Amino acid sequence: MIEIENIKKSFDGKAVLHGISGTFEKGKTNLIIGASGTGKSVLLKCIVGLVKPDEGTVTYDGRDFTHGDKSLRTDIRREIGMLFQGGALFDSMNVEANVMFPLNVLTKMPQAEKLDRVNFCLERVGLAGVNKKMPSEVSGGMKKRVGIARAIVNNSKYLFCDEPNSGLDPQTSITIDNLIQEITYEFDITTVVVTHDMNSVMEIGDYILFMHQGYKKWEGSTATIAQADVPELKDFIFANKLMRTMIKK
Ligand SMILES: Nc1ncnc2c1ncn2[C@@H]1O[C@H](COP(=O)(O)OP(=O)(O)OP(=O)(O)O)[C@@H](O)[C@H]1O
């Protein structure tokens, strides 16, 4: 479980996060949603330690990541897997080397064990046997799968996905969303997904934190989002024509 409490961040005197709190539970797909420029990526960066919040605390399973010492922060970082926008694969490395990369950097595992682990993860994301392909030789959806395999290869306890559907067609997006959710349940990971894709919200949102202009305006689940009485959330949901027809405003 990851808990964030009163996270505040300003850049050059301009407040971007106005005190965000929330709880991301283990074994659930937790979504941070909201319109463009509303602070989702900055919040994600605060949670994983790429940006230091001005105020507030991020706690990983009771461990204070924000104020912890270097060794605690390093321990927690080792337990984090990240799926970046576009996959962010190393173009000069084949699929196998990309997925193995965290094991090379973070572990002293023997080569044969590393390869077993890589093959297990590639198989789990539906890419058995593509080890020797280069990133340029695989589709956008496959790149995301490779990114997911890399994010979980070191038995990550926490998985962060920044806009996992960017650049994908709707059908591939749903497949990737479902894969993220299946993996979350299967390996009991605390998963946090940043998205503005309403399809994702309705497909995989076990917990949803809605942001608007740096404020948390609502939290809940797919089961309760349609009944939410928050004007900014309604505007966000019903900007999508399909959602307007599915749920009456
Ligand atoms: N390093 C930075 N320095 C200054 N301003 C920043 C920095 N990073 C983000 N911002 C500002 O913070 C605000 C929130 O940005 P953020 O990228 O978190 O939005 P977002 O909700 O993730 O948007 P999108 O969905 O388009 O990615 C924006 O106004 C952005 O310009």
TrEMBL record:
Top-rank taxon, per record = Bacteria
Transmembrane segment boundaries: none
Task: Keywords in alphabetical order, please.
Answer: ATP-binding, Nucleotide-binding, Transport
Which InterPro entries does this entry report, sorted A to Z? AAA+_ATPase (IPR003593), ABC_transporter-like_ATP-bd (IPR003439), ABC_transporter-like_CS (IPR017871), P-loop_NTPase (IPR027417)
Molecular functions per Gene Ontology = ATP binding
**Which residues belong to any copy of the ABC transporter domain?**
2-238
User: Is the keyword rRNA-binding assigned to this protein?
Assistant: no
Keyword Methyltransferase present in the record's keywords: the answer is no
Record's protein name: ATP-binding cassette domain-containing protein
* Source organism of this protein record: Imperialibacter roseus
